[in-house]
Each structure stands twice: as C-alpha cells, then as structure tokens.
Structure prediction request, 254 residues.
Amino acid sequence: MSSNLIKEGEFSYIEAGEGKPIIVLHGLMGGLSNFENVFNYFSNKGYKVIIPELPIYTLPLLKTNVKNLSKFLKEFMEFKNIDKAILLGNSLGGHIALYFTKLNLKNVAGLVLTGSSGLYEKSLGDTYPKRGDYEYVKAKAEEVFYNPEVATKKVVDEVFESVNDRKMLIKTLALAKSAIRHNMANDLPEMNTPACIIWGENDNVTPPEVAIDFQRLLPDANLYWIEKCGHAPMMEYPDKFNEILDNWLKERNL
Prediction:
C-alpha cells in the first residue's frame, strides 16, 4: 500500500473510491497496511476511503500527544476540504477520533471504534519491549492477536524498528502516557453521533469490559463482538469486520 502513498505538503496518505468520506486512523504500533482489506472493500462500496499517516514520530516531543494528533486530523480534513466524515480508528487511532469528536462534533458523521484506547488499555506488557531482543518483541506482538500467526514477520519488523530507534521509542512512550492522561469517560455522553463498536472477545490490550463501557457511555452506540479475536479485528477477521461495518452503515444510512 505504501507504493500508492500520496504526498502533498506536510501530509502523506492513501486514498481510493468516490462518495462519503471514511477517514481511517491507525494505532500507535500499527501502519496503513493494517487496514488494507477495509480500504479495498469500502472504496468499492460508494465511499472515499482515506488513510493518513499520523505524525507520531515527526511532531516535536512536547507536542507528541493525543490532543495534537487530533489537531492534525482537523488540519488534514481542512486540507482535503472534508466538512464531515465517518472516523474509523483502532487502538490509539480510536482515541484520536474520540478526542476530535469532543472538539468537532459537527464534523463527524459517525464513529467506528475497534480496540480503541480512551478509557483503559494495557501496554505491550508489564515492561516495555526490550530493545534489541527480537524474540521478546515478536512474542509481545503475537499477544496482540488471538491467532499469533497474524503477527507476520512484516508486522513484527515494524514494531522492532520502532522500539530500537531511540527517538521513536521516546515518542511512543510519550503517546502512551498521553493516552492514559486523556481519559474520555466524562466526555463520551456528550458525543451524540452514531457509533459502531467492533470488538474482539479475546482482546488483551483493551479488554471486553472496555467495549461494554464505551457502549454504556456513548449516547448512540451499537456493540458487535467477534469471537476468537484479539486487539485488531480488521486484521484477524477482515471479512467479518467489513460485513459488520457495511451492515451498520446501511442501517444508519451513512
């Protein structure tokens, strides 16, 4: 997917399809390729699907937080002349979508959360992955999924690279701390926009009770479970994920 990357000014993104915009927000340790099946499916279903590269490692350290990534999303939408979009986020991406919605409710047509932070999340382990220890990083990456085989060499290599680059590691830790600080529990009841929550029943990072709390606190949310699935349903069960989301979008006329 990176070969299709569009670079305009300070923004890098992939885009396909025509119609209502769906903006996809990747997680802290995730890349654009995590949403390849979502991207291909919905760009052929009457939607313009856009996945921006979030400036996780390029913002100044003091600005590396959820608030400024939300501000980046606002600037990106203005750059693309998008007034209103469906926001789809996994893990930190979901958190950014929620923070953006808090400040820009009129610009959000709908929220799709999967394994989202914002209420509670575990780190990649009791200690941060040891730099230089590939097998340790591999084991921790595999724990993110119910089926460890989903953690392909490419996925593990991307995580390994980020934790072995000192600057990237510092910014990763800064964002992880920012996510804990920016708890959204008190804000969710004010987010009166349709929300679709798609969750893995075996998510070890954002456990099932997190999804239940999201549904309870958001005013207009539907919760869907995927069995034998971890923190990234769109990767482990892409067909099931797309089916659930497609049906929800049709039900909500989005």
About this structure: The chain has nine helices and eight strands. The chain has a mean pLDDT of 89.
